[in-house]
TrEMBL record:
Protein name: Delta-aminolevulinic acid dehydratase
Keyword Transmembrane helix: no
PANTHER family per UniProt: DELTA-AMINOLEVULINIC ACID DEHYDRATASE (PTHR11458:SF0)
Underlying gene: hemB
UniProt source species: Paulinella chromatophora
Catalytic activity: 2 5-aminolevulinate = porphobilinogen + 2 H2O + H(+)
E.C. number: 4.2.1.24
Catalytic residues as annotated in Swiss-Prot or TrEMBL: 196 (schiff-base intermediate with substrate), 256 (schiff-base intermediate with substrate)
GO CC annotation terms, alphabetical: cytosol
Quaternary structure and interacting proteins, as annotated: Homooctamer.
A GO BP annotation: protoporphyrinogen IX biosynthetic process
Amino acid sequence: MELISRPRRLRRTPALRAMVRQFSLSASDFIYPLFIHENRENESITAMPGISRWSLEGLIRQVAIAWDLGIRCVVLFPKISDHLKNANGDECLNESGLIPKAIRLIKQEYPGMAVMTDVALDPYSSDGHDGIVSKEGIILNDETVDILCRQAIVQARAGADLIGPSDMMDGRVKAIREALDNEGFQDIGIISYTAKYASAYYGPFREALDSAPSTITSKPIPSDKSTYQMDPANLREALIEAFWDEHEGADILMVKPGLAYLDVISSLRQNTKQPIAAYNVSGEYSMVKAAAERGWINERAVVLETLLCFKRAGADLILTYHACDAAFWLANN
């Protein structure tokens, strides 16, 4: 064959492949999600093999492991005791609560570790929604945003580096940015859940935090979060959300879930200069772990390929429960 172009020339050896490789992974790309609770013992999460709800002591051990592997950011999610929950999620405003306590502890032991937080009411709400539920069963936008602003300030005072509004209320990025600035926290960043879809991939996460919508209540509670999280059928809507988040002051834009929404990540990458994060969510993690446990896939190869694909699609950062394993594999190739 008389071919001028032979793309295989640059695939011939490992050295040549490495020379022209377009994307790569490093431990500093990862944000490590950590579930915490007030209990003294760590508790394994059945639906997420290898993941636990950590005591504060266990949390610090995990942060130490992550730090030694080169991971430089963790995100905290609280499992709140039922007796502390109410319809307004008031426990999220407790300056001595679980999340502020955990932030201060991490900053005391590992001051260089960036701490991202979650701003939403669902871990604290007896109704299990990200916002306040009216007596008619409607998620109240503006009333919720007021509480979210106060929650963000509590987290910033404790030492958070990145505030992560995951609630999907309209206008919350602008309101949180103004609230933080007014309290002197101009340097605290906002990593917004810009395109958070009403996805079936969140199931194991809701087991981990016991944060699913309530079915035991005297008022009508929506059974899902589709009135505020995005419809999985919609792509262009993500660009609208990204436009507003960017103009309202978000420093980083996030797409959640990640693996089934690579097209959304790619579309945002083409339309914004802001850093983009992808959330490799619990359902995606659990499917890989389940298949690996059965010997159906090579876990290491699949995980590293998946994470690399997030980068190729346009993500700068990846929230992933595989973070420590992936960082270890990358360091020991």
